[in-house]
## 1
Amino acid sequence: MTKVVRHKFKTIGITDKIDLPEVDLFDLPCKIDTGADTSAIHCERIRLKEIDGVECLVFKLLDKSHPLYTGKDIVTTDFRERKVKSSFGDYEFRYQVKLKLVIFNKTYRVSFNLSNRKKMKYPVLLGRKFLAKKFLVDVSQRDISAELKISK
């Protein structure tokens, strides 16, 4: 006899669109990646800068070729440096920041690795740490939350 498993998780497709209201980015395309441990976002010009005696991380999200690029410097003191394993199996150090992410009309505080994803189709990856205990991934679906947002 097959056991029917009921879950409380929201179904998410293999791609979607998210909002990052703190940095004025809305309907930002993302790829759902259960193979990635941590979420990642494309950025450029990452640098440490001392402002009023405090070490800050300064960066620009996306790049000039992306239609949602604002060119604004994002400045934060809430960051850390993490050793991460790339998809090629190499280790490198990347900065990690927390941003408010809105999907399915719900707000989450998500850790993002800052990385150069210019050659990738999607500027954002949502990884396992964010997805766990919240979402069930249906790889046959796309943009479920974006479609719900449009239909309202």
## 2
Amino acid sequence: MYSCLHTHSTFCDGQDTIENLCRRAYEKGLASIGFSSHAPVYRKTGFCTDWHIQEDRLEAYVDTVREARQQWEGKIRVFLGLEIDYIPGLMGPADKDYHDLGLDYRIGSVHYVIPPQGAPFAVDDSPEVFEKGIREGFANDPEALIEAYWDTVEQMIRAGGFDILGHTDLIKKNNAPAQKKRWFSLESPGYQRHIKGIADTIGAFPVVVEVNTGGLNRYKIPDTYPSGALLGLLQAKHVPVIITADAHRAEDLDGHYEEARKTLLQAGYTHAVLFEGTKNGVPQWKEEPLAE
């Protein structure tokens, strides 16, 4: 049984409406669909973006998902979530106002890094923005960027307030073979030290890690977030995982799930989890076997 809890609609940077996404998820035979619009950032950070939900649309988003839950009852389970950025000193999933929304779950994600000089930038922005951020913010030192990114991920994990860890190694998106320039080696001792450290941190907290196929769906990277190497480290620490598509269009709701399943099996996993809702405010998870 598959689901997709990482789904973006026209309320943020997705291409399909919530109704269309529910219909397609039902047609694909998914057990559930969860909506996870990018949480608003302007009020807390002053960042102007076209990919986060706008402050004045948040209430409508919540209402629309709840209406869809009623309309699709008995056919497919519909859950209400948010993907919330952790930006040091500015915002994070642990902020009380998100918990007051009555969400079913929260995805905690790191997109932004704050460089020692220059402006904050998202590591999954365009290659041009990524290069400018390294050049101006980190004095053209990719290792300094890597350090800042993984430190921020660790800070978010320790701060808590979320149920699912989003695309853990997003830092690699603009370092993929499809890009014009490789900034760092995923096999280098330094990078390996970081993923071992983050696996230790994740293993110490009650969090589910998503195996995100969004990079595959959008032809940006040749594997999942996180990589098989990191998943192997997480499996050794018995960290639960859930397969998600980070879908920005209806057709991708189960995109490349077979690759994700095989990656997990190769990493030593035998089960993934499905979200079953919350009970007394505590997320409930059901194990599903990965083997056919």
## 3
Amino acid sequence: MFGGQILLGTCIIALTVVVHAVGVIALIRLLRGKVFPKDRHPSLFRMVRVLVFTVLALFFVHTIEIWLWALLYVWLGAFEIMEHALYFSTVTFTTLGYGDITLSPRWRLLSSFEAANGVILFGVSTAFVFALIQRMYQAWPESYPD
């Protein structure tokens, strides 16, 4: 069963990375050219809107990924109730790890895969937000008040 968990973990990680890549690429395509038009400087209100939208969109992408892990746990029979699977998946993906709900020994290796998956994808999201803020800083004109 050890090998099966590694295979399942690898497959779901690949799936969540694809979901994340599609989400980030969609955000890039949506934001490129529309957020910071070359002919004018973006307003403070526009930059705040863009940042809030981006964070919420990334949160939505992470939510999809958490649901995919939860669905896997229910499909495997690790949890009978979707609410428990979703709670466990959220706590694990975010690496919060309360430990009040755990997987049986048969499937617990999967939780380490999910935690690693969450760390990496949150890192990608953080890098994306950092790049956006860096772009906002570059677009901020000297004439704006601090």
## 4
Amino acid sequence: MSGKGKNKVRIPKKKQSLGVILRNNWQLYVLVLPAILYFIFFHYLPLYGIQIAFKDYKAVLGIQGSEWVGLKHFKAFFNAYYFRRLLTNTFLLNVYYLLWSFPVPLILAILLNQIRGERKKRFIQTSIYVPYFISTVVLAGMLYIFLSPTSGILNFARAALGLKAIDFMSNAGAFRSIYIISGIWQSAGYGTILYIATLAGIDLSLYEAAEIDGASIWQKIRYIDLPSLVPTAMMVFILDCGKMLSSDTNKALVMQTPGNIPTSDIIGVYVYNVGLGSGQFSYTAAIGLFVNIINFILIITVNKLSQKTTDVGLF
């Protein structure tokens, strides 16, 4: 045998200097620069202020001049009279919200994907997207009007059935249901965007082959749509689990009334009242750090479980 070609000489590629790379691709770096600056100034630089959770922060002394107190504020929160109620209310509210709200965008996306008329599809999509752009304060005002014990449409219906009027917004037992149902109505449509984009990327030949084999609509959903949506759905689920102790404070705050405090008193509302109302910045910083640590542990745990069960993970 000839020995030609056995010992090929590999010519190493010439490495480009950093200056050359920047000069050749400066348009791309300029495009990315605003996002980089945003994360630096609004996400990384503020981390410097975390240390006030371990100090008795006083504005006149500044962060460096304030006295170091260690875990004092964490212990104060754990021993607080309302600690158990705050933790329970926040956790239950988010667990119930996740269980009820998570499947809705998925189901809506699958149903929208089955609509063939473009005009009809666009009209329905626009209709379900609109509630997302309603502000939290306006949404709360709508809830107070619709659920009013004297002029609310729901109590009018109860009166027509011979039932007594109920002040739903002052009912502690109704707070979580109102919060969850209104949240689903407001955000479910907007949440379909990722799923619709995933369905749009499915190869049409799969549907054509399924039709040739005589597959029904439900069989195409089961064997084509759902398997394609699993990776996206799992990533959304992992991210949602990372917000288990981070409720929508603004919404809970404007919905809170003296009657529903036993269930509406969550960590976010407590931090708002104590931090801004009483000026206990170190104490509320400690609470915020505690919440973020728990959320971080949850997202890491759920991500690991997802990787083991579905081979899908964020990292």
